Amino acid sequence: MRPKPSLGQNFLKNPGIAEKIAAFSGVEQGDTVLEIGPGKGALTGALLKVASRIVAVEKDDELFELLKKQFSDEPRLTLVHGDVLDLDMSTLISPGTKVVANLPYNIATRVILRLAEVSPPPATVVVMVQKEVAERICAPVGHSEYSALTVLLSGVFLCDPGFVVGPKNFFPEPKVDSRVIRLVPRQNPLPPSEREAYQRVVLCSFAQRRKMLRNSLLGLPGITKQGLSDLARLADIDMQKRPQDLSWEEYARLGRAYRQIITS
Ligand code: SAM
């Protein structure tokens, strides 16, 4: 079959890399794994050497049929035919589930943001993404790559930047390097009840990356100039700062203050 670029199909051809990802994922006997986009089963095969159960979601019709045949005598593998973005992640993830995937580039960030919304979150998320996306996800405060994506994920996960995988390990070869990263849930994540206001504040701040918060946060629905100084006081944030200068905890304070202001 011809690989379909529209489905981000770059298949791992180096079994050593599949083994390395499986080892880095920390999956062991007794674990349940969610794999997104099993493709031709390179990573699935490596994970089956240790995992007790794998649920694998594949969108491609041809590959789904191929996988069914390839793993027909493997009772530990449940294949799901569908678009992962159409599925309710919380039905695929139970407490303790580890997510492992070589993600299709075109949907990688959307999938990871969905995974961050599951409560409780997966025990670990080990994913291969474009190197540039990995750099955005793992960027420290103040870094040029520190972005809304970094902050939204930081409220839930700690990021281990893992390792780089070059184009030659795939068929067809992608034009860019990839990186395998590991996301581990924080001990004290942002509570789900605070997520909505947090998201609003983060997205509004980064919508105008070069502006000071005192300018960009005026774009928040319900925030007047007076509201802005209340926000600064309640959250104890210097509004002369720019979005990349705030930690996720500071955004959490802004989110709580914002909620307080618009509900009072
Ligand atoms: N895991 C395989 C490997 O490492 O060789 C394949 C990885 S390939 C980068 C991405 C896989 O995700 C492909 O098999 C593709 O068909 C599948 N895929 C693409 N979009 C998807 C979606 N929305 N839902 C589920 N699977 C998808």
UniProtKB/TrEMBL annotation:
Signal sequence annotation: none
Any Gene Ontology CC annotation: cytosol
Protein name as it appears in the record: Ribosomal RNA small subunit methyltransferase A
EC class of the enzyme, as a word: transferase
Taxonomic placement: unclassified sequences, metagenomes, ecological metagenomes
EC annotation from Swiss-Prot or TrEMBL: 2.1.1.182
Keyword Transferase applies: yes
Keywords: Cytoplasm, Methyltransferase, RNA-binding, rRNA processing, S-adenosyl-L-methionine, Transferase
GO function terms (MF aspect): 16S rRNA (adenine(1518)-N(6)/adenine(1519)-N(6))-dimethyltransferase activity; RNA binding
Alphabetized PROSITE patterns for the sequence: RRNA_A_DIMETH, SAM_RNA_A_N6_MT
SMART domains: rADc
Gene coding for it: rsmA
Sequence ranges assigned to domain Ribosomal RNA adenine methylase transferase N-terminal in this UniProt record: 17-187
